[in-house]
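Lay summary

Proteins are chains of building blocks that fold into shapes. Our project writes down both the chain and a compact code for its shape. Here are two examples, one after the other.
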Amino acid sequence: MPPLPLPPHFAPGRVAEVWRVEYEARAAEAEAWASEHDVAPAADDSFRIALVAVDVQNTFCTPGFELVVPGAVDDSRRLCEFVYRNLGRITEIVPTLDTHQALQIFHAAFLVDGDGNHPAPYTLVSPDDVRSGRWQTDPALGVDAEYLLRYTTELARGGRYELTIWPYHAMLGGLGHALVSAVEEAFFFHAITRRTAPRFEIKGSDALTEHYSVLGPEVFGRKNEALIRHLLEFDAVVFAGQAKSHCVAWTIGDLLRHPDAEEAELARRMYLLEDCTSPVVVPGAVDYTDEANAAVQRFADAGMNVVRTTDPLETWPGLAASG
């Protein structure tokens, strides 16, 4: 199916704004759009494509919110355009939602120093920091006093990032937790047009661990085997969202490391929309550009396809003969 035009309601200049989606109007337009462009229901797809949209939320993508990734506005715009132009090819959208509350191990209120002061945002906490007493769990929380050392030690043993104190973000029930308005509208339009509901996946609500990957926490938790099995059923799995250095990279890495990935030849069926994801960069605090680039190179070396929205789907490896 050739790429579709962008629907009249799409306003690329509003991607950086927060607004209410006009669901009734979009639903009527989507049904008319499906009829006008002969877009079949997703259930009819013979070649099934999943789009995993990682944490395309206001907290990471909309100017003025808590942890905005530089480049995220343009990433979101390109993602919307990709969805609209490929409505007839994308079988299912899997949006992930980073979901937090105030008292979690990566938020400042969870830790204190010897004087009761909380760490500043972007503080890194190593096992040595815990052993020396530089940081400890706030005793008022009633958490096992030894847990923080076990946790940071396990992060180091597994080659993970050090415990990072992030600004309060993706707070459950807050505006930052919501999808970017333009992205939500595009996903809703896809659902009505293709007659298929998005599969929302919540991550990050465990107070005692970071949870970058939607497929499992950093340490001390179980993998999301149900989602892994679901993704393995698709002929192609496309990844986009924020941030390239953290939640996108960790999700892809977890999927590629799954015991069934090699047997299923999964890497060759995975695609990263590189122009729809950016690394965490906070001037004067942190810059994960190098880590993001290194992760993408590892994935490409493993056989994953790195593509851009400007590349027509029929030119993507493995998709040329899919229709």
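And here is the second example, written the same way.
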Amino acid sequence: MRRRSIIGFVLVLTVAGCLIPNPPELALKQTPTVTSSQFEQTIVVSGTESVVPSGYTGSRYFLRSVIHKATGILAHQIYVDHYYDGDWKFWQSANDENAQPLNVRVLKREVISCHYGCFHEEVFGIDVADSTLRSHPTGFKVKVYAKDASTMVLELTGVQIGAQLRAISEASVAK
């Protein structure tokens, strides 16, 4: 009789675990995409994607560059979309490899669901100077810090940076 109770309990836990939705399985982009419209003042270049360390399926990061059409002014961010369960992390600051602080812009914080614990999504951008991208053709790393003392290191490879800079160059000529 005790064995049936244990099996029943395990079954309930298994079914309960299925109630916490995972974000949709997304294939990582392997090439940059350029978004532009006659109705917009900017061109957006979204780079190749990498998986966020210790994030759930769908957690990813990539370079995102914005080109102002009239002025040619260029701005870059490491765009991070992080899904996780448990308590809020509140990603809030970042440093480059030289321990220099980088600006973090919170774009979205959302509770996806709460059943037996909560599932969260945090989306944020880390500002990166154009000179930083161009002076690190082989890549660089950024360490991100959360209010709950969590950290993660995001690595941008030379391949990602090169592809991004080529896409920006092509988009600038085509505007």
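What can we say about the second shape? Helices lie at 2-17, 130-135, 158-174.
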